[in-house]
Amino acid sequence: MLRYIALRAALALAVAFTVSLAAFLLLNVAGDPAQAIAGEDATPDVIEAIRDRYGLDRPLPVRYFDWLGGVLQGDFGTSYYWHKPVAELVADRADETITLALSALSVTIIIALPLGALAALNPNSWIDRFALGVAVSAQAVPNFWLGLIMIILFGVMMPIFPVSGDSTWKHFVLPAFVLGASSVPAVMRLTRTGLIEVMGADYIRTARSKGFRGWPLLRRHAMRNALLPVISVLAVQLGQKFGGSVITESIFAINGLGRLALESILGMDIPTVQMLIFVFAIVFVAMNLLADILNAALDPRIRIG
Amino acid sequence: MQQFRWRHLGAASALALATAISPAFAGPSDDTLRAAMSEEILNLDYNYTTKREYIILAQLTDATLFNIDPETQEVLPSIATSYEFFDETTLDVTLRDDVKFHDGSKLTPADVAYTYNWIKDERSESNAAGVVRRWLDTAEVTGENTLRFHLASVYPLVIRDMAARIMIRKDGTYDAGGEVDRDAMAQDLIATGPYKVASFEPGTELVLERNEDYFGEKPAIGTIVVRNIPDIGTQQAEMMSGGLDWMFKVPLDLAQSLGATPLATHLSGNDLRVGFLVLDSHGYTDPEGPLTNVKVRQAINHALNKPEMAEYLIGGSSEAIHTACHPAQFGCDTSVTDYPYDPEKARALLAEAGYEDGFTLPLWAYRDKAAAEAIAADLTAVGIDVDLRYVKLQSLNQARAAREIPAYFGTWGSGGTADTAAIARIHFDMESDRNMSGDQALADEILSAEQTVDQEERKEIYSSALGKIADEALWAPLFTYSANYLVSPELDFPLDPDGLPRLQNSSWK
Amino acid sequence: MSLLDIQNLDVTLALPNGPLKAVRDVTLTLEPGESLGIVGESGSGKSMTALALMRLLPRSATCEAEALRFDGQELRDLGDPAFARQIAGPRIGMIFQEPMTSLNPVYTIGRQMTEATVARGLLSEAEARRKAIDLLDRVGIPDPEGRMNQFPHQMSGGQRQRVMIAMTLMLDPELLIADEPTTALDVTVQAQILDLLDDLRRERGMGLILISHDLAVVAERTDRVAVMYLGEMVEQGTAQEVLYHPQHDYTKALLAAIPRLDGPARVPAQEAAAPEVEKVISATNLCREFHSRKGLFGPKKTVRALDDVSLELRRGETLAVIGESGSGKSTLARILLGLDLPDAGDVRMLGRPVLDLPGAERASLVQPVFQDPYTSLNPRRRLSEIISRPLVLRGEGDSASRLAAVKDAMEKVRLPGRLIHAYPSQLSGGQRQRVAIARALITEPEALICDEPTSALDVSVQAQILELLDDLRAKMGLTCLIITHDMAVVHEIADRVAVMYQGRVVEEGSASAVLDHPSNDYTARLLAAAPRFGATRDLEVVQ
Amino acid sequence: MSTTDITLTAVEDSETTPLTPGQIFRQRLFGHTGFLIGASIILAIVVVAIFAPLIAPHDPYVQSLSTRMLPPVWSEGGSWEHLLGTDQNGRDYLSRLIYGTRVSITIGIGAATVGLMIGVTLGVMAGYFGGWIDHAISFLLTAQLALPGLLLAMALVFIIGPSIWVVIGIVGVLHWTYYLVVTRAATQRIRNLDFVAAAKASGASSRQIIWHEILPNLASSIIVIFTFELGIAILAESSLSFLGVGIQPPIPSWGLMIAEGKQAMFYRPWLVVLPGICLFLLVIGANLMGDGLRDITSPEGRNE
């Protein structure tokens, strides 16, 4: 067990370093950070001042290895904008993104699982068609467009929910719906096909031959088997959502990692971008690992082999 | 089951839909002005920032030695009561004796001297360093409330810089005990202005309270809350649901539409910012390129329908210009050659220059997409095939520094300084990459205008320089900008001609 | 009064291209304690009849009958919930063909055994658990206590089938239906399960319906036998009547097609195997190990598939390799074909080591024929492309000559010419296996290596393929190595035989010598499990 | 062995040979309502894209600043001259929507193909060879998922310059993972089937096996993914344009139009709603086609 986790941790670090190197190069190619920080009306001398304050005139390899050296001692550098350690910056904003990710995930679960199960239990019925309709249309709605429509509907016409900010839980309802809705199709489809497959399995036929029908049959035999593939997909999606959704967070002015990523990329705040990439890579791999562990916990064939 | 535990946590928050809440009403009821800014406010010390948002906040939190009357451009007393040039390079300033910092401590000449000397000091790396180093030698305390500035050279804009750029800090703020801390005032600012910082959450919200023992005229409104809302759409929603009282940098269409509703009033004041095309007349990108030919540059000027752009795309007080400066700036001579909108003449000029079937022109732009597209369309109409490159500011600056840009749509706000020096120098100085004409004589002439204190002489220099720029059509000046604001109906927000918003002068109706 | 009385049962399946009558007008009766065998090939409707009785038909099937009486009670009057509560489980129990998937993989054996009785409130948790342990012991599961909290995947196929039987008996049914219970098991295990079923029937005075495609196996162990063909009950009678004087032509043909030990002996190709006869393939001291990880986190596990195996295939002979699953016979075949490299030992073809032979040359020496007709042909290619592929790979001849070669090969394997442009999905199992053989022969290889070529086919089709292989061998002087698990097949076609057990060759010799007096007791057990028609049921093992 | 006179092969040679896979595929294709609806939407949009110059009432690039931001004809102030009003630069909104189909369709097909090329090659390589190649490719997969797409887009748009081909390349490079995962699993399954072993035994090289035996069997699942990726690519382009790093003005792209309309969305909601609906229609058409194809090509089919 530990060997497996150690392997995954090594993979996460390897990915994190490679991707952060790629991001470092891409950012420096895409523009001059000093200009971005200085802003629109900066005179050349101001830009020079910023350039030597952050050592941006040093050659790329020197800057990268300097950053790398810091990372090895746990210091991810300070943000060019916020003038405070990047680790602290990411930590403050992590809780908004986690809350958003978890509530978005629960939106997905609340919509996708029952819909998928109902569609599987009575194939070709109107529920099945309706479920397919929801999946196909939810997949076709652009994320940012849904966000704007939500603001128009709930923010202004029927001001039930606040439109921006992240102070109270009410602020998270609309964004959670927008973020959650985007992953409903995949989860619903998986639940549906999973359950159809399980209902056709031999052991279900054995259970029916012992007189089990309807809900007891579903609960005692089908549910756990059908949920196996869904659990791993949900875990992976949670990983992506922890990465924060760039668009949802900026539309709803939620101070999460997604918005931080957008602004630090557009503003060329290199240390923040690299730290974020580090966090995303590790969270992503950790979520895959969690999916494996959950699968092992639920499925003895994997656990005991 | 175990793995569904985190699901219940999320479900609780998503399910509670029912309760309707009334939006928190700002405005006169709690004497709080809620302002929105899309740029993130991260550092309150204007000595270490440059963006426009920080200039606005500095008006509220800081006081400077002098103030410039936006109407008459006349110098008014502020922290300093008077000044006198002992000789061309020595300036004596007397201070008021009743100015207090926000923490109650009394302002002394030593604080002022320290601030100027620190900014000039190598270690400061302050954004204002460039300005101060251009004219200051040293500042020394000469009396109980007087100090003397030794100037390194003759510079006409010393008082103007003192009024706009340098914010006074207590003695030893940045290098207490020898250890340099440039971010000392970034979060908990101690200054002398009409408002003091009540609470500050970087990137989210800044709360300012009226400074009761402010030496000058106390502002009418008790509290100002500045909220960071990146998305303009979201800002609108907050304004409509009463969550905001003041919005600036509002796009014209939005300002007009929301202004028409009873929920908000649209104010449009003028702005020192001007928009222009800079053309690679020197031929950095292509020595024999079309832009090196004056006729082509003149054709470009004729091709652009500037009046329509000003009226429809910028709106408010925006008007077309033909000078490489803002008409309201000192020394900006509007009698220079003008190239009125005349597509036929533009095609004729192109033909004369040997480009009957036109040429492809990569045009870079970083803001005002509608205007950039309008420019591209006007040029295409006369046969110039425009490849519009609409990129982020830092990408444009980097490409310009690498001399890859033949023409770009630039803007300049002169930092609110109503003097042609604030725009001419940076765009025609030989070292600046914004200078695409590479004309040494022109550069020297412009520099000379900043080396004399005699305003009449400066005026003549600028007239001749601007005349040359216009004749050679080094630029294609476009229009002045107009500042569009959206304010709540209960707020009275006076606008100043220099376009700098002064929230401290606002009050409830 | 008969335990079970089915009159004129019809089952129709609604398939995309029109309705199909799977069961036509079947009448069936069973007395209490009596055992009935239903025999038929795939598609004969034997399973459908049982599923109709248990109401387990697929959603798209409809079934009508004049009478469906069980112990005097007309089942059709019962609603689905009532049927589930009263009949399914306590009155009629059923076990299925695939033991590997018939138990729920994520729950322990104990829970699956006890849940039916506890849910119905017949027994308390503790009583049910004790009963389960007794039943597991009765069906021959070692250490039943420990097995209760194990999972299905930790047991062998045979053990799982035993658990299935025990689980069904938990509810003490009066009738037990076994739908091809042993088809997926090894021959030796097969015999034990069938004996167990028979003993339990007598012990509990239970009715038993044993459904199988293997007439010989069923006939030996049931009182009466019914034969089904294309959905109809073509013959019904006591085991003796059906076996020794069958009425219906189909039953006769079926009996003739079954390979059996006491059938006519094979004429050996050439008696004196002269020493200098050329060795087409010779393998010496082959060893091969496979490493697998037990579960995601478990320790590594190594399995010795081949343990110092030496074997020779001489020109013109048919060598049979017999052994059960896990004996390493398939691994041997892949190594001899050059598809897999041994850890130790070497393989030579006509004296030259396989390693130095380039692919194309090796192809002209030896060609494979695999077990499963459904995966041995590329579904996306037409027959002409499949059969001519080896020639294309060798770059031999042009399209015209290749087409001729294909036609010639199709004739050799007796495939109708019009199928030349058909796709595999349009052919039956037997036809596909003929295509595989045609493909193997197109390059006129020295030897054919067939890995259980007929075990996935119906008995009648199997007979044709074996006959075809024998003809080809005679006409083309082909050398064959045939891998099988059925001693009767060895008896019918093999000159020499090698018996493999757990990766080692335990016995080798001429077919007649090994079959008449086996020296190794494992071979003897294999022989005992193979059906003999002559003897009556109480046959002793020849020692 | 005596052969009885009744040749059992009679059962084998029944005259009516069942349908070829191709015929079955076509039969189920035209029977699947979902697929037909989707295909007709896509077809309609492709026709509009091809004949845009004829259909569009005005040239989408011609500006008239004086008549900018006109409302559509049904709300007051609208005119029949510009059915759906005009945009910020006074260009006819309906024409821009119509020309927008060209951008979306080219990007959709282009990006999905780029994704297919990368994803399928890597998937087959990882699936067939396994071993360290498989590990290297899954490392690449994880790294790709961790790198924010926005960053890659911004850098590439700056380096190479903003043309439709660059956007196609970016969206394609960001969306090959779905192909990889599916083809890798399918290749691993097919690699162990007997007909591949038979091909190997007849001397086929790995390349020949992949080309001749494995790829044809992947064709149906690749087509299904392609139709889904079509929708995803179109949405991705619109998101990138929405963030300002996708299609460059003045080319009309629906994502860009939504971004531009966003500012005045409370008073001129049609500037946001109309392109949104077009995007929605196009993508829902692609998804319905994808769903239909998947039901038809999957072995058990949807109706069993």
TrEMBL record, chain A:
Residues annotated as domain ABC transmembrane type-1: 94-291
Gene3D superfamilies reported in the protein's UniProt record: MetI-like (1.10.3720.10)
Top-level taxon of origin: Bacteria
Membrane topology: Multi-pass membrane protein
InterPro entries per the UniProt record, alphabetical: BPD_transp_1_N (IPR045621), MetI-like (IPR000515), MetI-like_sf (IPR035906)
Keywords of this entry: Cell membrane, Membrane, Transmembrane, Transmembrane helix, Transport
Any Pfam family: BPD_transp_1
Subcellular location(s) of the protein: Cell membrane
Keyword presence, DNA repair: no
Gene Ontology terms: biological process: transmembrane transport
Entry's transmembrane regions: 98-121, 142-160, 275-298
Coiled-coil ranges from the UniProt annotation: none
Gene Ontology cellular component list: plasma membrane
PANTHER family to which the protein is assigned, alphabetical: DIPEPTIDE TRANSPORT SYSTEM PERMEASE PROTEIN DPPB-RELATED
Similarity comment text for this entry: Belongs to the binding-protein-dependent transport system permease family.
Protein name (Swiss-Prot/TrEMBL): ABC transporter permease
Organism: Pseudooceanicola antarcticus
Phylogenetic lineage: Bacteria, Pseudomonadati, Pseudomonadota, Alphaproteobacteria, Rhodobacterales
From TrEMBL, chain B:
Keyword Protease: no
Keyword flag Mitochondrion: no
Gene3D superfamilies in the record: Dipeptide-binding Protein, Domain 3, Periplasmic binding protein-like II
Record-given protein name: ABC transporter substrate-binding protein
Species annotation: Pseudooceanicola antarcticus
Compartmental location: Periplasm
GO biological process, one term: peptide transport
InterPro entries in the cross-refs: Peptide/Ni-bd (IPR030678), SBP_5 (IPR039424), SBP_5_CS (IPR023765), SBP_5_dom (IPR000914)
Keywords: Signal
Family, per entry: Belongs to the bacterial solute-binding protein 5 family.
GO MF, one example: peptide transmembrane transporter activity
GO cellular component, one term: outer membrane-bounded periplasmic space
Automatic annotation (TrEMBL), chain C:
Family annotation (NCBIfam families): PRK10419.1, PRK11308.1
SUPFAM superfamilies from the UniProt entry: P-loop containing nucleoside triphosphate hydrolases
Keywords (A to Z) from UniProt: ATP-binding, Cell membrane, Membrane, Nucleotide-binding, Transport
Source organism: Pseudooceanicola antarcticus
Cellular compartments annotated: Cell inner membrane
Residue span, ABC transporter domain: 6-255, 281-527
Swiss-Prot/TrEMBL GO biological process terms: peptide transport; transmembrane transport
GO molecular function list: ATP binding; ATP hydrolysis activity
Alphabetical list of Pfam families matching this protein: ABC_tran, oligo_HPY
Protein family (similarity comment): Belongs to the ABC transporter superfamily.
CDD domains assigned: ABC_NikE_OppD_transporters
Topology in the lipid bilayer: Peripheral membrane protein
Name this polypeptide is given: ABC transporter ATP-binding protein
GO cellular component: plasma membrane
From TrEMBL, chain D:
Lipoprotein found in the keyword field: no
Record membrane topology: Multi-pass membrane protein
Single GO biological process annotation from the record: transmembrane transport
Keyword Cell membrane found: yes
One Pfam family per UniProt: BPD_transp_1
Residues covered by the ABC transmembrane type-1 domain: 101-290
Transmembrane regions listed in the UniProt entry: 35-56, 103-129, 136-158, 164-182, 214-236, 270-289
GO cellular component: plasma membrane
Keyword vocabulary terms for this entry: Cell membrane, Membrane, Transmembrane, Transmembrane helix, Transport
Localization terms from the record: Cell membrane
Family that this chain belongs to: Belongs to the binding-protein-dependent transport system permease family.
The protein, known as: ABC transporter permease
Organism listed in the record: Pseudooceanicola antarcticus
